């Protein structure tokens, strides 16, 4: 088993750039399936005489490409991509800071609950960047269903939301984003650190972990993350894309979904989520680790 967690100096500049690179890798690798996930999550239950618009992940992929081309899979990517550098920078910085705050001495090691707590701090810090980006992304991804092109892009969407409802309109769904990201970030980082540790050969440091093992640890961390996050993510997607005034809060969304479609509705888009989670998060952590190694080589004392 590899080296346990050690106290590390937190470098905001290095974490900013490394987290940004990792986040860009995540978006580029995972956005097409994120688009499919959201469309599956918000499609209404068909009446007895009707057929659902999408029968599953593959059907949604096929119809999206047929109607909108490959560009349709990348709709709404501008908003998360624009926020991905500060978001992932703060996320990785928050995780490092959370570890730092819990270690009194340089030789202290962290327990799994402590690693989980550090991850939750990361989730809390990123929510206020994540929430508006998620709101805009979801609206752009689903506007095709209405047949009316209301928003021409992320900036236009944000501008219209602000004019119509002020800051509250842009940040609609923040509580649900917190409910999703705080615990799941704990799971995300804890599982990644745990997997890195057990995958490191005896006598070696986790910093020497091979690329395939980093990819596996990052991909599995993504799967664990979404296994916990998906029910709340379904509620968030429906709440953020609903007409203004339809729901007074997430409890209304939960009650309606369960009443109309049962508990299974909370796992809409499961296949798309899990298909996306592994490669997207593998790419994210690989991008982060490679960039950190480069920055540490370039400026070891920074």
From TrEMBL:
It is a multi-pass membrane protein. The keyword Metal-binding does not apply. The chain crosses the membrane at residues 12-30, 77-98, 110-131. The keyword Thylakoid does not apply. It comes from the Eukaryota. Keywords: Membrane, Mitochondrion, Repeat, Transmembrane, Transmembrane helix, Transport. InterPro entries: MCP_dom_sf, MCP_transmembrane, Mitochondrial_Carrier. SUPFAM superfamilies: Mitochondrial carrier. Solcar repeats lie at residues 10-101, 110-198, 209-294. Its main location: mitochondrion. It is found in: Mitochondrion membrane. Belongs to the mitochondrial carrier (TC 2.A.29) family. This is Mitochondrial carnitine/acylcarnitine carrier protein-like. It comes from Huso huso (Beluga). The lineage of its organism: Eukaryota, Metazoa, Chordata, Craniata, Vertebrata.
